[in-house]
Amino acid sequence: MVKIRIKNLSKEFTVYTRGGVKIQGYNNVDFEVKKGEFLSLYGHSGIGKSSLLKAIYRTYTTTSGDIIFTKEDGTTVNIAKCDEKDIIELRKTEIGYVSQFLKVLPRISALEIVAAPLIEKGESEKVAKIKAKELLDFFGIKEELFNVSPLTFSGGEQQRVNIAKELIAPKPFLLLDEPTASLDYANTMKVIKQLQKLKENNVTMIGIFHDQDDLKTISDKIYDFALKKYVEV
Amino acid sequence: MILEVKNLTKVYGEFCDKCLESTGPEFESSVCPYCSSVVAVNNINIRVNKGEVVGIVGESGSGKSTLLQLIYQDQKADQGVVYIDGFKDDLGNYKNILEADPNELSYLRTKLMSMIYQNPRLGLNYQFSAGGNIAEKIIMSGIRNYAEIRKRVLYFLEKTEIPKERVDDYPDRFSGGQQQRIQISKALASNPKLLLLDEPTTGLDLSVQAKILDLIKKLQKEMGFAMIIVSHDLGVIKHLTNICIVMKNGQIVEKGLTDQILEDPQHPYTQLLVSSAL
């Protein structure tokens, strides 16, 4: 089953604060990802990989083309054109997004942040916090940091909290924007291991990796942004 | 659907037939060149769904506060239709709340929607104690049993972190931040479906601001009411809302998911607004 189909998608930014100058984001991107597959986006910095992930999450608008997403119940929705209220629903139950940088409210502890998605899903606070502790522990976050706001953490620790909060109650479709960028080898392997576990559970993913080895380890397919086609893993 | 606003308009002045078409963002003016009326709100359409949190941003004078006041009917609109979930006629059709009689209006303003003002003096009665203010809303919502009213008052004081033993103190004995929290208690005591907030944290110091915002967010998640929040603070909008509306010269220039409005604004004015934020 095709989980997501990107059809002839293009994005152009118009910057009115600079006299209406137009900046090309990406052009005629066209690919599909089947359920349970991991597709990596490949290409040099600035070619528009992150912009495309943001378009799939609808943080960015698109200029032309379609993003046809198949929901878990089998119905489809065009993310590029649907109503905001549909996107809010999709973000609650269908699509997860690991951003490049952790974005959270100040004053809220790492433990609460990681436990929150599970509580929202209906789990009790007690159980959610136990699972959050296990996950933080797996990612090597020291226990003394659990009750501190992650905004005070190092870059690598922040990134692990960022991933943990998405993985505690994984959505069936995940977007990963350089999830291993600021991690050392050992922690990168831990993330890869978790992602492989998700794959076994039929989670569909689109990811961007800086490191070629990470990319090859996890990907089923690679889409080359410059060549506009799939390339060999 | 919780709220639907159609063609809502408010004009201060004569309101000639050219007012609406000759003002707005493309004219960079809200003043009608023919009759000098001020078009504060110009043909606004909004729909708010259950549990949604909508933010309204825009420069001073763009009409955002007036829009809230028209919905809450602190001011009378000149034209338009406003439907709210729970206000229907005998046949089950939505009734325009702008045509509600005084009795219906009182029902609308207790059971269906509440307003939190920037200045707690507008939302609280300073002749009543803190508890009395909250109790007023509870009584109006139909509960008459004293013990039950008292219990609910204390429950809301606890929720908004006001010491229970101060229930009988008058609002002017409290700090600004505490008065704001009493106002929030009062607004939520009747369990409304829609909460309107007009700059709820402007003028409070940063630490108090943060506490009030955390509180509003927590209560919204717990109680599930829909919210429309007017603020010129993009940080407040970013943290509280999922949909954002940008207003200029009485009209909506852009509407979208809040993260989209902040990260990929489409309208020239929105780009200017977002790029001006610290």
Describe, in plain words, how this protein is organized in 3D.
- The complex is a heterodimer of chains A (233) and B (278).
- By secondary structure, chain A is α/β, with parallel strands linked by helices.
- Chain A has a single domain, classed as 3-Layer(aba) Sandwich (Rossmann fold).
- Chain A contains seven helices and ten strands.
- Chain A has helices at residues 49-57, 84-93, 110-120, 125-138, 155-167, 185-200, 212-218; strands at residues 2-15, 21-34, 38-42, 64-70, 76-78, 95-98, 173-177, 204-208, 221-224, 229-231.
- In chain A, strands 6-7-8-3-9-10 form a six-stranded mixed sheet. A four-stranded antiparallel sheet of chain A has the order 2-1-4-5, with helices on one face.
- In chain A, helix 6 (185-200) links the parallel strand 7 and strand 8 (204-208).
- In chain A, helix 3 (110-120) packs across helix 4 (125-138).
- Chain A is globular, with a radius of gyration of 18 Å.
- The two termini of chain A are 21 Å apart.
- By secondary structure, chain B is an alpha/beta fold.
- Chain B has a single domain, classed as P-loop containing nucleotide triphosphate hydrolases (Rossmann fold, 3-Layer(aba) Sandwich), CATH 3.40.50.
- Chain B is 37% helix and 22% strand.
- Chain B contains ten helices and nine strands.
- In chain B, strands 5-6-7-3-8-9 form a six-stranded mixed sheet, sandwiched between helices.
- The longest helix of chain B has 18 residues, at 206-223.
- Chain B is globular.
- The mean pLDDT of chain B is 94.
- The chains are: A alpha/beta (233), B alpha/beta (278).
- The A-B interface holds A 13-17, 54, 58-61, 84-85, 87-88, 105-107 and B 49, 52, 210, 214, 217, 239, 242-243, 255-257, 259-260, 263-264, 266-268, 271-272, 275.
